[in-house]
Amino acid sequence: MDSHDPTVAIACKTCGQIHAIEPLNPGTIAKCHRCGTRIAKRTPASLHLTAAFTLAAIILYIPANIFPILKLDMYGATTENTVWQGCVRLFTDGDYIVAVIVFLASILIPLLKLLGLLFLVATTKFRVSRWKRPRTWVYRIIEVIGRWAMLDVFVMAVLVSLVKLQRLATIIPGKGLIAFSIVVVFTIFASASFDPQLIWEKDEAAI
Length: 207
Hints:
Layout: E1 8-11, E2 18-21, E3 29-31, E4 38-41, H1 46-66, E5 70-74, E6 77-81, H2 83-92, H3 96-125, H4 132-146, H5 150-164, E7 169-173, H6 175-193
Antiparallel strand pairs: 1-2, 3-4, 5-6, 5-7
C-alpha cells in the first residue's frame, strides 16, 4: 500500500478481523465480513445536521436555565426554582455533593458539550488544517460524555426525590424542564450526527 493509496486498514472491534477500507460515500457503511459488525460509516450532510441540532440546543439552553424547572406547592405557598437556584439551595442546606453533581450535569457539562460541538463544526466547515489531533480529542471526550447523558435524568430524579421527602409538597414541572429535556435530546442528536472523519479530510464534497 503506497502513500497515495486512499485505502485504510481498520480492525473490527468485535472479532479483530483486519479490513482494507476504501473511502466511503456519504450515507454508506462498512461491515465486518466475518461477524457483520459495523466498522465504518459516513453520515450524509453531517455538518448541517450537527450545526442545526447544536444551534437549536444552544438557543434552548437559555430558557432551560432562566425559566423554573420545578414549581413547589407546600401548605398553599408556591415557589418556583431554576436549576441554578436549586444548586444554591442544595449547597445552602449542606448537600454539597448533590449540589456539585447538579451543577456539573445540568449546567456546566451540557454547555461545554455544545461549545465543543460548535467548535468542531466551525473548524471543519472552514477546513482548518491545524489542531486536528486536539479536535479529535474534543470529539472523543464529547462522545464519552454522551454515554452518560442519562445522568441528567438521574439528577432531575434526585431533585424531585429530595423535595418529595417532605411529603406535603406538590411538584409541578415548569417551562425550564421542557426546554432542558429538549436540550439533552438535541445534544445527543448533534454528537451522533457529527462525522469525525471530516476533521482529517482536506476536501470534502459533503461540506
